[in-house]
Amino acid sequence: MLIKILAVGLGGFFGAILRFILSSAILKAYPNFPLGTLFVNVFGSFLMGILLTLNFENENLKLFITTGILGALTTFSTFTYENIVFLSDNNIKFFILNIILNLFFCILFCYLGILLIKKL
């Protein structure tokens, strides 16, 4: 059990760093809308679809990548907070747009990741 916990924790360390780097770069390019969160959620969903369709022989590696890296890379708490900010700013248009884009593209790209692996 300790190895599984360490695998998730170490993966989370790398996923959080990756999330920070990607989100910061995208936020710098597009400061008015949280495209960084959208990107990491869509990208992470795509990778999750791919990875969970593969058969991992090593359970610890699977936990490291999926629960650790991708769990830290994609975070629903940031998405939720950004939507609360839109609501508190009375920006209903961005509130609705952000919810629709995140849900639609994350579901779509997770499915595309599954299809990609099944076609190989």
TrEMBL record:
Example GO BP: cellular detoxification of fluoride
Binding positions (Na(+)): G71, T74
Gene Ontology cellular-component terms listed: plasma membrane
Places the protein is found: Cell membrane
Pfam families xrefs: CRCB (PF02537)
InterPro entries membership: FluC (IPR003691)
Catalysed reactions, semicolon-separated: fluoride(in) = fluoride(out)
Keywords from the UniProt entry: Cell inner membrane, Cell membrane, Ion channel, Ion transport, Membrane, Metal-binding, Sodium, Transmembrane, Transmembrane helix, Transport
Transmembrane portions of the chain: 7-27, 33-54, 61-80, 92-117
Organism superkingdom: Bacteria
MF terms in GO: fluoride channel activity; metal ion binding
Main location: membrane
Topology versus the membrane: Multi-pass membrane protein
Regulation of activity: Na(+) is not transported, but it plays an essential structural role and its presence is essential for fluoride channel function.
Family: Belongs to the fluoride channel Fluc/FEX (TC 1.A.43) family.
Function: Fluoride-specific ion channel. Important for reducing fluoride concentration in the cell, thus reducing its toxicity.
Protein name: Fluoride-specific ion channel FluC
Species this protein is from: Campylobacter pinnipediorum subsp. caledonicus
Lineage: Bacteria, Pseudomonadati, Campylobacterota, Epsilonproteobacteria, Campylobacterales
Gene label: crcB
